[in-house]
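Researcher: Structure for this, please.
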Amino acid sequence: MTLSNRQLANVAIEACVDSYVEYGVLMVTGSAIPRRFSIRDGNARANLYGGDTCNILCYRGTDDIGDWVGNLRFTMKTPKKVRHYRDMLPFVPNANPLIHRGFWNNHQKLHRHVVKAMESMDPDKPWIVTGHSLGGAMANISLLREPFPESPYIVTFGSPRWGNKDACWLASQYSQRMLRFRNGFDIVPLLPAPIGRWKHACPEICLNGSNSSRPIGAHNIYDYRVGLQRYND
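Model: Predicted structure, token format:
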């Protein structure tokens, strides 16, 4: 089944909102998509939803920019267990993929539990992987790790840069389609400062929420939803 950009974005934004409010069900165009699993380890969280047309994996982020900017180390590491990277041998990039150490460690906390939960989901339905803020970075990293039956759709909101160009290229090869939204003057997608190292895996799509002129307010998931509603109209 092929999903349109509008369908992908509307489902993804509701999953990101629910990751904060935790109602446990998504209402999209009159259809209810229930949450099947909720996985937590400290501040790292992921929800899995199963509907009639798709499976959804949503990584929770944070609206508190100072929380993760101040506490996560902006250093890179070479991941040792990237399944897809080994699959491509001997045709591999000239350089190893490097990933933000803090984002990788957050993803590592959930990885084994997410894989186990995915095994209980319908393998014949396409996957949408999404996240807001840190969750967007973890959604991208999941492309390098989770055993999706086929390439998933990736939709992120306010995601920071999460890896070097080789990691981003690798992620782009294993996605069905990527949509990356930035709301107004949200500063998080500009972090960490590139310095020739940090990259995004795809171009941004610009939204204009009601609070989009304020860098902090523009990062709020609810203002992303306002911006997406305006974009849809």
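Researcher: Any notable elements?
Model: The radius of gyration is 16 Å. The helical segments are 5-21, 65-71, 83-87, 101-118, 134-142, 165-173, 221-232.
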